[in-house]
Amino acid sequence: MGYRDTYDCWRRDPTGFWMDAAGVVDWFEPPSVAFDPKAGVYGRWFPDAVCNTCHNALDRHVAEGRADQPALVYDSPVTAIVRSFTYAELLREVQAFALALRDLGVEAGDRVVIYMPMVPEAVVGMLACARIGAVHSVVFGGFAARELATRIDDAAPKVVLSASCGIELSRVVAYKPLLDEALTLARHRPHACVILGRERLKAELVPGRDHDWGALREKALAALAGGRESPCARLAATDPLYILYTSGTTGKPKGIVRDNGGHMVALRWTMEAIYGMAPGEVFWAASDVGWVVGHSYIVYGPLLHGCTSVLYEGKPVGTPDAGAFWSVIADHDVKVLFTAPTAIRAIRKEDSEGRQLPGYDLSGLRALFLAGERADPETVRWAERLLEVPVIDHWWQTETGCAVAANPLGLERLPVKHGSPAVPMPGYAIRILDGDGQPCGHGEMGSIVLEMPLPPGAAVTLWNADDRFRESYLASRPGYYDTADAGSLDEDGYVWVMGRTDDVINVAGHRLSTGLMEEVVSAHPAVAECAVIGCRDTLKGEVPCGLIVLKAGVSTDPGLVADEVVALVRERIGPVAALRRVVPVDRLPKTRSGKILRATIKRIADGEAYAAPATIEDPTVLVEIEGALASK
Ligand code: COA
Ligand code: AMP
Fold first, then answer.
1. Would 133 be classed as within a structural domain?
2. Given 116, 218, 440, 470, which residue has the most CB atoms within 10 angstroms?
């Protein structure tokens, strides 16, 4: 079936569609009903099924003849290590680590926070949690101690998994001191921490609390060899598999909760229908396990589908050069690469002629998929010319877990419209509404909303915060999920996603909250008020830019305060925030009711034409802002 028939099939009978899709999962007890509209916040998928995600990702493939096929290929240019794990080997590692977690007292339903670099042990940790029914919450390594502490307090983990260090382009990032600091900042106390010691930097272990990963692994492997079993827990399909924190409008991150059953059904469907992958083939998502792309397409999607997944600990440029991605594709026979447009822009910036490419055999590559931010047409065209494969923009969010709109190569290759992530996937009926909640016409910009209920695989709620889920996503447009993205639908049903309607910005494909940055900037003792906005950036898509007004009577040089603010954001939120530009101004543009005119500031910062809003208190301030931004 092509795209249209498949989509219509879902539209006619959504529950029948997903029940059919559920047939590929190896259930312990299969679902007898697809959807219970009365359960949970908005209904729950496969309410009476029993399953285990780790069983489907590993055990079943070993049992079905994939024991010797590589499951995970770790390619780490920053350590010069390339290591492949077969399905049997990965299963063994996961069985062992699941035992280690059990011995630390972790049971089904307990949370485990994972704060780790891109190493195989991070994947082992996630799958071991899935095996015993513990709920993992991976925190991206680029976040600082305070952000880690916020997540630890919200998830209240029994155990934290971490490593001595991560390896970035310019430096070795010592993770362990960040974890120690987070644990002094957090109110919650985990029972134990398990620390992976890496060659480049050893970590000091806190007696009684910290355990050495290697030692626990050895002990558990010996127990397995001695006949101890490490079974998969029998979990309800509706039990949580993981929590993944993502930025929202306020400083407090949202803990997106993903279930076991719906997640498996959705991801398996996408591997075939969207990415066109067959079991046994190699899939590479060049992202990080700390982001949703890493969860869905480094770990779960490829493994559930019996593919080989590449885990890449490196960058698109600098490890060692702009040919790094082509080298990984050639070395591991990657069929589909998935990354963020910013990575392609980084390569293009260094090697616009594609001089690196001819050195590598990319004949196996079938497609490049892009997501995480809008794929600008220029970058897409450049990649198309260079790679001579379809370059597919697709649109999704941490909340949805997989694509809302895509060009589903596995079903049919639809015409590409540069700048649009194409058409809605089964599960999603996209509508564009104006400010009064009325439908917009073709090509008219409005809020992008999705008809409820959300399909399998989408967020089921926010951790311990059902009401916040309702308020954040469901309250503003009754009957719809509000994506907080703005855009339009054209006459062919293609969606055009143009940007966020809230305080979220996308910096190098990383989702960040300007609201959180403003909280930190305001905490500087010399700052009276501030505004942080996302400015256009040719490499990272967007970068934050801060305007600060100093308190009356502050005699410190404003430039010095700006530098301190930059340092404060890096210290409190982490390097990933990438706030480098902070501009002191005498006052901020506001409406007569006192609201800061952030959208107007953004237009000025982006060098776009702007008009003073009718509600502005004093239009002359805009000229001052223009001058200040032009000088820094
Ligand atoms: N642990 C610790 N620090 C990290 C980190 C991690 N896992 N990831 C990033 N950082 C640090 C970086 O070292 C950098 O620090 P610096 O300010 O000291 O240089 C900072 O956070 C900002 O990182 P980033 O935004 O990634 O910028 P960059 O200049 O290091 O790299 C790109 C730019 C485009 C090469 C990079 O962002 C990239 O490869 N992006 C690919 C897309 C991607 O992974 N998207 C995720 C969703 S799909
Ligand atoms: P994240 O939750 O980190 O995946 O970020 C989700 C947000 O990134 C979306 O709400 C969009 O604003 C943006 N985004 C992701 N993919 C795309 C895309 N293909 N086109 C436009 N925006 C995108």
1. yes
2. 116
* Binding site membership of 247 for ligand 2 (Cβ less than 6 Å): no
In a domain? residue 502: no
251 pLDDT higher than 80: no
Among 287, 369, 374, 507, residue to substitute to test ligand 2 (most atoms within 8 Å of Cβ): 374
How many whole angstroms separate alpha carbon 586 and alpha carbon 609? 22
Same domain, 469 and 537: no
Tell me the residue ranges of DSSP E strands in 116-253. 135-138, 159-163, 165-167, 172-174, 192-196, 210-212, 235-236, 240-246
Residue 45 confidence (pLDDT) above 80: yes
Question: pLDDT tens-digit profile of 104-152?
Answer: 999 999 999 999 999 999 999 999 999 999 999 999 999 999 999 999 9
How many domains would you assign to the chain?
2
E strand spans, 330-442: 334-339, 367-370, 391-393, 405-406, 423-424, 430-433
For the domain that residue 456 is a member of, what is the CATH number? Answer: 3.40.50.12780
285 with 293: CB under 8 angstroms?
yes
145 plus 111 within the same structural domain: yes
Classify 543 as helix, strand or coil.
strand
Between the CA of 291 and the centroid of ligand 2 the distance, in Å, is 12
> Are 475 and 532 in the same domain?
no
Cα(49) to centroid(ligand 2), Å: 32
pLDDT confidence of residue 250: 72
What is 523-572 written as a DSSP string? TSTTEEEEEEEEEEETTTEEEEEEEEEEPTT--S-HHHHHHHHHHHHHHH
Q: How many angstroms does the Cα of residue 323 sit away from the middle of ligand 2?
A: 26
CA triplet 502, 506, 508: central angle to 5 degrees? 175
Backbone Cα Rg of the chain: 24
Q: What is the pLDDT of residue 169?
A: 87
- Total number of residues shown for the chain: 632
d(CA 286, CA 537): 21
186 shares its domain with 114: yes
- pLDDT confidence band for 170 (50 / 70 / 90): confident
Q: Both 216 and 294 in a single domain?
A: yes
| Same-domain pairing of 454 and 594 | no
Determine the atom of ligand 1 nearest the C-alpha atom of 293: 48
Strand partners, 433: 439, 447
Do 514 and 608 sit in the same domain of this protein?
Answer: yes
| 524 has pLDDT over 90 | yes
Ligand 1 centre and the CA of 167: distance in Å?
11
Residue nearest to atom 5 of ligand 2 (CA): 397
- Domain holding 478, by residue range, is 3-314+394-486
Same domain membership, residue 568 and residue 461: no
| Contact 335 CB / ligand 2 (< 6 Å) | no
Nearest CA to ligand 1 atom 7: 141
**Last residue in a domain, options 486, 521, 543:** 486
Q: What is the dihedral of CA 253, 259, 260, 264, to 10 degrees?
A: -90
Is 51 inside a domain boundary? yes
- CATH code of the domain containing 607: 3.30.300.30
pTM listed for this prediction? 0.96
